[in-house]
Amino acid sequence: MWLLRLEPYTTMFLKLQSGKFDHPCRIFSSVAQAWENSQRDMADVKELIPELFYLPEVFVNDNRYELGEDEEGNSVNTVRLPPWARDHHHFLQVHREALESEYVSSNLHKWIDLIFGVSQRGEQAEAAVNSFYYTTYEGMCDPSQVDDPVIKEALEEQIRSFGQTPPQLLTTPHPARNSIQHVLNANIKNLNGIVSVLNPVKDHPVTLVKPLLNPSLHPSPVLFTVSANQTITTNKFVPSIQNAYQVFVESDPTPRPVRDPMDRPCPRSHQLRCVA
């Protein structure tokens, strides 16, 4: 559905539809319309595929296929984007940033439960409105055991054209990802409470405590401190054995002064690690 405009998927869809494209109203022609359909149509169970986060050709009808007209008489051609998207490249950039956002990471366990876990089958799947046609489930249908050639061919075509549900890997809810940012917000309400632990130089109090949680700048989350005598230290996070949601900070054992803070970058004292 998403890759209709690209080969070899165009040929595959034409074969499925007896040499013709599907009805224009069912062809992917608008991001907004695809979103609305997924919210109101119980039969719309399509998922976002990786190509929707990196491949702009998905949205462009470079091959100039005649895809018909929608109910309003508009020609179905290049996919219509949201108003905020400057072009297809910009849409993919923002779409990928959303996928990699903290919000998605913090809720990823719910998707795992639906696709691979406890909410894939049974009562929890029904409660989550996550039930599909029986031929899509592993072990529910074996065409090799069907004697009638017509029924066997129909089952094989159903599986080949409409997909299969992945094997169920988990039977208990998947735990949520523990975000350092969330743990900091929950446990370090007042940074002044840990200044005594992080004070690297006697008689020179810490004047700034700043967490660095951007992996593009540093691979492991760290806590920076700057003292009144212009000494900077980097401090690593270590977990609590008793409580996985509590975070302790291990002080930097080798703080170094910054002699010319305006002229040269502040050096880090040693390699840091994070266990979360």
Shape: flat
Question: C-alpha Rg, in Å?
Answer: 27 Å
| Share of helix, binned | 25-40%
How many helices in DSSP terms? Answer: 8
Work out the oligomeric state of the chains in this entry: single chain
Structural class of the helix and strand makeup?
alpha+beta
N-to-C series of helices and strands: HHHHHHHHEEEEE
Low-confidence stretches: 240-247, 258-276
Largest beta sheet, briefly? 5 strands, antiparallel
Ordered list of secondary-structure elements with their pairings:
Blueprint: H1 9-16, H2 31-40, H3 88-99, H4 102-115, H5 122-127, H6 149-162, H7 180-187, H8 195-198, E1 206-212, E2 222-227, E3 231-239, E4 247-250, E5 256-257
Could you characterize what this model shows?
The two termini are 40 Å apart. Helices cover 28% and strands 10% of the residues. Mean pLDDT is 75; it is low at 240-247 and 258-276. The chain is of the alpha+beta class and 276 residues long.
